[in-house]
Amino acid sequence: MYIGIVATTENESHQKILKNITMITNAKICRSYFCDADILVGIDSTLQYLPYYIGAKLKNVATITFMYDIRSISHTYLAALDAGRSPLEQRLRRMFSLSLVKPLLDGVLSPTRAIAATIREYTGVEPCVVYLGVDHNIYRPIPITKVRGFKAILVVATKPHITKTAVAVFRRLKTRAKLFIRGPCPAGLNDVICLPKLPEEALPRLYASADVLFYPSLHEGFGLVSLEAAACGLPVIAFSELAVMEVLGDAGLFVKPTSITEAAEVVDWALNNEELLKDLSVRGVRRAREFSWKRTAKMFYACVEKFVRL
């Protein structure tokens, strides 16, 4: 059985899935529409993948897609805000691409049970869950001395709504703090530091330098950033979003996304509770150990066998 995998974008999560699954399963990366494989796995289901799925079907190759989320349909306004489009355009684009791709698929993978339920609700498709993993050779606690007169709050994100929400909460904090943002970052704000894009190997030291990771995402497929931060021993404060809660379990402090002021009060309380932060750090490292790319590969193979009936 030869598995081919294709990723058509530079999305960080997609590239990590591509890199780690190909490394563990010895799958080949497909760069041609007519991939020489028995099974083709696409790391998404957008129109960019349509030629690959068509090429696979013309060669009688089984096709599976990794549907990370379906937020353009389930959370249209949020997806449109992040994409800079009108909600109508965002929804129609996704529905159109899904209508073309869906008939070509033999199976759908999803990263969490929460997202699987959402996909089932909006498409009628029953996905097979494959949890993502953490590279524990990279993401691990690094001892570092913190000598400063403020709390360091870190935000690592690619979606603009996450960083905008983080800034709004930060402005209401009473604790002396600075906000460090790696991702879409508004320039020129006091005590908000915009960080450049860093290589993956540098992220553990960045996590070790902060006091908390703040991850106010309103919708996630998995929330890999929060798990990688937890693996480094960085306490995680996140919005109570279903997929992130499923992944972090008891290793995160979750805030209801109902009020910016209330969220700021919780963050203030957490920043000044050293026992809580130590407990979250220990719980995070322990929880992250449950997620490895080897486990991902086992779940991946089980799902492939379910869909293709090898």
Walkthrough of the structure:
With 310 residues, the protein is of the alpha/beta class. The protein has two domains: 3-133 and 292-308, Glycogen Phosphorylase B (Rossmann fold); 151-288, Rossmann fold. Helix content is 44%, strand content 16%. A six-stranded parallel β-sheet has the order 2-1-3-4-5-6. Strands 9-8-7-10-11-12 form a six-stranded parallel β-sheet, with helices on both faces. It is globular.
Strand tally is 12
**Over all CA atoms, what is the radius of gyration?**
20 Å
Q: How would you sum up the major sheet? A: 6 strands, parallel
Termini separation (Å)? 9 Å
Percentage of β-strand residues: 15-25%
Q: SSE order, as H and E?
A: EHEEHEHHHEHEEHEEHEHEHEHHH
- Biggest sheet, strands in spatial order? 2-1-3-4-5-6
Q: Give me the number of helical elements.
A: 13
- Helical proportion? 40-55%
How many domains make up the coordinates?
A: 2
What global shape is seen? Answer: globular
Structural class: alpha/beta
Question: Low-confidence runs (pLDDT<50, min 5 residues)?
Answer: none
CATH class of the largest domain: Alpha Beta
Q: Per CATH, what is the topology of the largest domain? A: Rossmann fold
CATH architecture call of the largest domain: 3-Layer(aba) Sandwich
Average pLDDT rating:
93
What's the CATH superfamily of the largest domain, by name? Glycogen Phosphorylase B
